[in-house]
Specification:
This is ROK family protein. This protein is of the alpha/beta class and about 425 residues long. The protein contains 14 helices and 15 strands. About 45% of the residues lie in helices and about 20% in strands.
């Protein structure tokens, strides 16, 4: 009874196996693909034919076989066949990136959202507008490209197949089906739409970028970032662990002080109230800049003052480092992480955070140095979330090449009678 479905699953897995091999090792010949994947040559021939039909692979010339046999025909991926759209919601703006299968950026589009607190429809409208502009630019440049996915990354836990942004502070402390709202704004977009947590995407991107630079990660890694807000992720063996409600790693609302400032999440003393953008802007005396020019301009001014040695800015980051250290201790006590990666402006301003962070961790390090995590700073800056969202979509396509439709058949030339 299950044979047809099982057969389709096997074929899908084998297509993925071949596509991933060509992605990692191409250009190469069919014989090399067979040897590298363990598939028989006849199967590889049929699978490659299907990937060519879908426009994902093409023949790329031939090379001598090294003997008396026929030359080997090489195969390579066709990166321009697929376009991925990745969107990120930041403090004041929506950013959309369109990139081909290899990650070459084809188009960028940004717009301020000015979405009022608690109004997800206003934000969805801006996401829709920016995405439509990016898609139109891609269609103009590459009419045959297949738009494979739109992934929207934003702060807040994302749970379940309904893609609910649960307990997102930007929408009030309740669940919002942002995916449905964005889909309503894009009736002509013929591709899946996904909503993901921005910190989880950045965590994955930084994890792999650091690994490419030679960092050897332990089994369990925590990621903490601050930019739009304060968020984080928990990675186990390189995969995001989201917990029972999508809340694992949401360190921004970890209480670190019993009598701290009241947070909109319903409790007091959350980490976000000490290292989030608004608290840091206030502590550095930059409220007037934020009111007149916006939060992103105020953070840019804070960066300038830090590098100029401004005492108020330096003190604000020193206190933030102590708060961050308290949160790291809490995370380590629960998860026993072997590494903590700091991202967003926590990485950019690591030199100013480090004294307070080290001071808070010093006692535990002295008592149990072998059980304390390494503190690592991210390397991707503002690109981390978009790169993570892109890579997540790309991995999904590599796992299921059948999601890309076959190319239309070329027109048959009419012949005269």
């Amino acid at each position: 009874m299950n044979a047809p479905a099982d057969s389709a699953d096997v074929r899908r897995r084998n297509l993925a196996l071949v596509l991933r091999y060509l992605d990692a090792h191409g250009p190469c010949a069919r014989t090399e693909v067979a040897a590298g994947t363990g598939l028989v040559h006849a199967s590889v021939t049929a699978l490659v034919a299907e990937l060519i039909d879908r426009g994902l692979v093409r023949e790329a010339g031939s090379v001598p076989s090294g003997g008396r046999g026929r030359p080997r025909r090489l195969l390579r991926l066709v990166p321009e066949r697929v376009v991925i759209l990745a969107a990120q919601v930041t403090l004041e703006s929506v950013h959309v990136m369109a990139a081909d299968f290899r990650g070459h950026v084809l188009h960028r589009e940004s717009a301020p959202h000015h979405a009022p607190y608690g109004d997800p429809r206003a934000l969805a409208a801006v996401i829709g507008c920016v995405t439509r502009a990016a898609e139109a630019a891609v269609r103009d440049a590459s009419p045959d490209a297949h738009v494979a996915q739109l992934t929207v990354a934003m702060a807040g836990p994302v749970v379940g197949p309904g893609q609910l942004v649960a307990a997102a502070i930007d929408f009030g402390w309740h669940s919002t089906d942002l995916r449905a709202l964005v889909v309503d704004q894009l009736p002509g977009l013929d591709c899946p739409v996904d909503v993901v947590n921005d910190a989880n995407m950045a965590a994955l991107a930084e994890y792999h970028a650091l690994a490419a630079d030679g960092v050897r990660h332990p089994e369990t890694v925590a990621y903490i970032k601050a930019d739009t807000g304060v968020g984080g992720g928990l990675l186990v063996n390189g995969r995001v662990h989201s917990g029972s409600h999508g809340m694992a790693g949401e360190i921004g609302h970890l209480p670190i002080a019993l009598d701290g400032p009241e947070c909109r999440c319903g409790t007091r003393g959350c980490l976000a109230m000490y290292i989030g953008p608004e608290p840091l802007i206030h502590a550095a005396g930059l409220d007037a800049v934020a009111e007149s020019e916006g939060g992103e301009a105020a953070l840019a001014e804070l960066d300038r003052r830090l590098r100029a040695g401004d005492p108020d800015a330096t003190a604000a980051l020193g206190a933030a480092g102590h708060a961050l250290g308290a949160a790291v201790l809490g995370v380590c006590g629960v998860t026993d992480v072997g590494e903590v990666i700091l991202g967003g402006y926590l990485a950019t301003w690591g030199a100013w955070l480090r004294p307070g962070l080290d001071a808070r961790l010093a006692g535990r390090r002295a008592l149990a140095p072998d059980t304390q995590p390494d503190i690592t700073f991210g390397v991707l800056g503002t690109e981390a979330t978009l790169r993570g969202a892109f890579q997540t979509c790309r991995d999904a396509l590599l796992d299921d090449p059948t999601s890309v439709p076959a190319l239309p058949a070329p027109p048959v030339n009419a012949t005269s009678p």
